[in-house]
Amino acid sequence: MASVSVKNLDLNFGDVKVLQNLNLDIRQGEFLVLLGSSGCGKSTLLNCIAGLLDITDGQIFINDRNVTWEQPKDRGIGMVFQSYALYPQMTVEGNLSFGLKNAGVPKEEIKKRIERAAALLHIEPLLKRKPAQLSGGQRQRVAIGRALVRDVDVFLFDEPLSNLDAKLRAELRVEIKRLHQQLENTTMIYVTHDQIEAMTLADRIAIMRAGAIQQLADPATIYNRPVNKYVAGFIGSPSINFIDGTLEVNSDPVFRAGETAIELSGYAFSGNGPKPGPVSFGIRPEHIFTDKVAADLPFQCEVEVEVVEPMGADTLVWSRLDGHELRFRVDGQTPVKEGERMKIGFDPARASIFDAETEMRV
């Protein structure tokens, strides 16, 4: 098994500071996902770990060995890119064996590794085909197999599923999850902008923004206790509802927005407890309930339905609370019409509250 450590890493492109004083420790056998929007630095960080970019300052360790200035081929990594990057003139078997032959691996060992990778990725019937004869999902499996045959301890994935359609992405997500379970001693670092991939695959997620890690935690913590407003808004589909207002601290803390007052006695505040002032109150659409369930929850109110979006298994309802957009889900079989009034409720303990100025969780 191998761990990966990034210490005080800086990367500049001329006068542009891309990554600044970045620190990250990835555990042995862990599946870590680097998640963020385009331009946040996630692929750049992965390329630094791979040795494809020379860093400006800092150090990179793989299995406690300083590899900061080693060539990619000497770092003990296997990398899967967004583009399949397969040799079109070679068969699948040829693509899988090419790097091993150049490295002087014996024929019997090459055969054994190809058979193992093909079995893990279910591509045994494809070994004699060429890339042009494969579907997108099959090509990506071959690209993963090419990394897999190297028999390394660290795999790096750079948005490997982004070129595939939704159905294929879902299928290959499961395959990658199974692959990590079967290769239990293997560390995987996976870059994506897709939060579904991150939440379903990761042991831990590092959410990045402007070259910095905003939060590093397991998916449940990222979802339920986002460290700041950016993370809260980035994770979740549909995204979290934000209501701007004021935090009042008397005998019990209360969030107030216009005529709405939400008691926060069950909310777990961070740090030294609540402080009065302007805040943003966040509640996820899936934490808002209607009808009989709403009647048993600490906060209840009535809203008017503005827009209805049927989505099959459930329906997304758009309404407003004191002028702020409020989205919530109802069962797909529940009849809902624009203009009708609905009783909703939620537990403020499941909310996330952020300071209006710093946007940090309070």
UniProtKB/TrEMBL annotation:
Keywords: ATP-binding, Nucleotide-binding, Transport. It comes from the Bacteria. The keyword DNA-binding does not apply. InterPro entries: AAA+_ATPase, ABC_transporter-like_ATP-bd, ABC_transporter-like_CS, ABC_transpr_MalK-like, ABC_transpr_MalK/UgpC-like, Mo/tungstate-bd_C_term_dom, NA-bd_OB-fold, OB_MalK-like. It holds the Pfam family ABC_tran. NCBIfam families: PRK11650.1 (NF008653). Belongs to the ABC transporter superfamily. This is ABC transporter ATP-binding protein. It comes from Chelativorans intermedius. The lineage of its organism: Bacteria, Pseudomonadati, Pseudomonadota, Alphaproteobacteria, Hyphomicrobiales.
